[in-house]
Each structure stands twice: as C-alpha cells, then as structure tokens.
Design a protein that fits this description.
By secondary structure, the chain is of the alpha/beta class. The protein has 11 helices and 10 strands. It has 2 domains: about 200 residues, 2-enoyl-CoA Hydratase, Chain A, domain 1; about 50 residues, Lyase 2-enoyl-coa Hydratase, Chain  A, domain 2 (Orthogonal Bundle). A 6-stranded mixed β-sheet has the order 1-2-3-5-7-10, with helices on both faces. Strands 4-6-8-9 form a 4-stranded mixed β-sheet. Helix 5 packs across helix 6 and helix 9 packs antiparallel against helix 10. The longest helix is centred in the middle third of the chain and has 17 residues. The relative contact order is 0.12. InterPro entries: ClpP/crotonase-like_dom_sf, Enoyl-CoA_hydra/iso, Enoyl-CoA_hydra_C, PaaB1. It comes from Methylobacterium tarhaniae. Belongs to the enoyl-CoA hydratase/isomerase family.
Length: about 270
Amino acid sequence: MSETSETLVLTERHAGYRVLVLNRPDRLNAFNEPLHLALRGALSDAAADPECRALILTGAGRGFCAGQDLSARNFAPDVEPDLSRTLEEFYNPLVRQIRELPMPLICAVNGVAAGAGASLAFHGDLVLAARSAKFLQAFAKLGLIPDAGGTWLLPRLAGRARARGMALLAEPITAEQAESWGMIWRVIDDADLLAEAHRLAAQLAQAPTYGLALIRRALDASETNDLDAQLQVESALQGEAGRSPDYREGVASFLEKRPARFTGRKR
C-alpha cells in the first residue's frame, strides 16, 4: 500500500478522546516528510474538535518511533546536508504544536523510541511504556546532537549526569530505568499498555480540559522562572481558570456532593 496521510497516521475516535497511531511499522515508524505532515494534520484536526479532550499517541507494530528515517538521507557526494532546515521546517513546528495542544497527550510507548522518537515520547504529558520498551538517544553515533527538544528535555527529566550519559554514550535505557529516573509516568506490562492508556484517556476526557491546559502552561513556565516570576504566572493563570464554567461546576458539585459534569471549555 502506498503511503498517504490517511495510512501514515491512523485515527481512532472514542467518546471524548482520540488515538493516533504512527503507521510505518516496516520502518519502526521512523519519520519522513510525509509522516511529519500526516501527524501534524492529525494533531490539528484533534485540536480543532471540541469533543476531543484527550489524545493517545502510539506506534503500529513493534516500535513507537525510531526517529528520522535515514533511508531518506541518501545525499549525493557533492551535496552538503542542511539539517537545520529539516528541524526548522518539520521537527520544531511539530514539537511546538504538541506543547500547545489544548488537551493532555498520553504517549503509549509500545517498543523502541529512538532519537527524535524518544524526544517525541518524552513530550507527552503522561508517558506510559511497555515493559519491553527502550529509549535511545542515538545521535552521537551519527555525529549529531539530540534534537526535537532533546537537549532541553533530557536534563530536566533525568538530571545533568544521566542526560549527558544518555547523549554521549548513545546507550539504550529500559522502561524500568526511565521510570526509576522519573522520565516517564509508569511502566505497564506489554499486554496491558493500550488498555491503561485508554483508561487514562477516558478519565482525562471527563476532566476540566481547559484547566488541564493551564496546568501544563504553568508547569512549563516553571522550568525557567524564579519563584517570584512563577507566582505571577500562577496569579494570571488562576484568574483565567476561575473564569471558566468548569470552576463553577467544580465548586457546585463539591457543595452538592455529586460528581462533577465538566464541559472542558474555556467559556
């Protein structure tokens, strides 16, 4: 079957959430330009749907994403590669789009996540990994640096020493290591991975979605703010949250001792 936007990223619609499946299993779901465009299109479509209040991202076959498809890097001897163009046109816009999603993203890592594929996984709000999964920063083996936000993510997730070890040695780490280092939310038995991802997505789909998006913004801001600046961020974002109908519903449901019925909307 030829690759099209419909086949490169499969979309499953469920009540309140969607599942996006990277679908190049013969290439371990490695990125080429069509896959970039298909994923960005699927993310945009989900973000524009008010009924979609959570996302699951996973991979078809035995891998999550092997990063860049090097078979697309068959340069002629006299051609000097311009990898900065690839980042500016494809990877960087994808990362920014993920970070600005209006709903939580669950990454269900079902196998190897290598290079930019590992960075992609780590950008998830909740990262679940199958027990057999592995994370690999393979860039050093190619004379490159971690990209797709990798140099920003690794020290924040794993700490300075482990980030440098992963980047310089290009050795895989297991799902259990990633969990023990605080890089992912949870390790799940392989057979239960997608069921747990669906359970969390269904839970998030009933939550105050706009408030969850504000939580992400606040936590992201805290990465570079000092305490006083972060207090200002909290004040501004809490003001926005308090004006949402979900805040009123949360208070009312608490006082009336009943389950909340959140709409997820800003206004």
